[in-house]
Amino acid sequence: MPEGVFTAPLKKPAHVGDDWLEPKQTEYSSEEDGIWNDLFSRQMEVLPGRAASAFMHGLDKLDLGRGGVPDFGRLSEELDRLTGWSVVPVPMLIPDHVFFWHLANRRFPAGNFIRTRETFDYIQEPDVFHDVFGHVPMLTDPVYADYMQEYGKAGWKAMRYNRLKALGALYWYTVEFGLLLEQGEVRAYGAGILSGPTEVVFAVEAKSPNRIMLSVDRVMRTDYVISDLQPTYFVIESFEDLYRQTVERDFDRLYRNLPPAFTYANSAVIDVDNVVHRGTQEYLLRGGRGSGARPV
Ligand SMILES: [Fe+2]
Fold it and tell me: For residue 35, which of 114, 150, 188, 261 sits 20 to 30 Å off, Cα-Cα?
């Protein structure tokens, strides 16, 4: 994941308007469709039994494995019938206020381009595979779909209080790296986890990371890692619980009391935490990405 998901470059390409939408989706070559298919197959080897059932059902409902990069128009029609969402093409990361505005109107902005064979394993900016495969299946779940809209609505308020970092942490620990309990077992629903082959196994099964029940207040005070596996994941009981915690939260009051910097380190476990698994942090202590440490 790129640095600053919420601080997109402000230099707008000349061909897009204030909504930052591309006039139409890219036409993909057969090579690019092949990249989608290979990424899709690779994920299907690791997701069953680790991904939340809402995600797996979403993949089915939208038939994302029908071959090639999905057509946004067709996807949007199907999503609209299910939850009233649509998928719209954008050229790159877009400015925060525009991103929030689209979410608040139930439009999910998805990167138009797809990675190349050279960047198959790691990309700087989220591409169409991360955005569509990772995010869109969850938008078929009615409660999750409402949560995403509420998140968008919360964005401008966070900007007014200059607490975007805190709201960004909530996105990070839910939409990108969230875990969920299903019949007592941990499953992943975050797009950052589900769109790559390594983190899904690490997040759900490894001994290193902490797994802590989510509290919105706690999460919004917690730092996170941008370019490595997370030292801590937050677990929700259900999407209803996540939605309720978010809409019932008095964000005005929270922002007035939040310090501008994060209070808790990304590997911290604090007294009030309801801990599902206390991590060994072995992966991190051995040096993390680039050190040759195994993600155990
Ligand atoms: Fe994402």
Answer: 188
pLDDT average, residue stretch 237-251: 94
| Cα dihedral 217→150→204→194 (10° resolution) | -140
With contact defined as beta carbons under 8 Å apart, do 33 and 117 qualify? no
CA 216, 222, 226, 230 torsion: positive or negative?
negative
Quick: pLDDT tens for 171-218. 999 999 999 999 999 999 999 999 999 999 999 999 999 999 999 999
Q: Give residue 271 CA to ligand 1 midpoint distance, Å.
A: 31
- Ligand 1 centroid–CA 110 distance in Å is 9
Alpha-carbon distances, residue 213 vs 57, 163, 177, 254, 276 (angstroms): 24, 23, 13, 19, 7
CB 156 within 8 A of CB 100: yes
Eight-state DSSP code of residue 137 = G
- Ligand 1 centroid to residue 229 C-alpha, Å: 15
Model confidence at 5: pLDDT above 70: no
**Residues bordering ligand 1, an ion, CB closer than 5 Å:** 126, 191
**What is the CA(144)–ligand 1 centre distance, in A?**
15
Q: How far is the CA of 135 from the centre of ligand 1 (A)?
A: 7
Residue indicated by tokens 């077992």:
185
Q: How confident is the model at residue 8 (pLDDT cuts 50, 70, 90)?
A: very low
DSSP string, 99-165: HHHHHHTTEEEEES----STTSS--SS--HIIIIIIIGGGGGSHHHHHHHHHHHHHHHHHHHTT-HH
pLDDT at 121: 85
Q: Which helix (H) or strand (E) holds 275?
A: strand 275-277
Angle between helices 96-104 and 142-160 (to 10 degrees): 140
pLDDT at 9 (0 to 100):
53
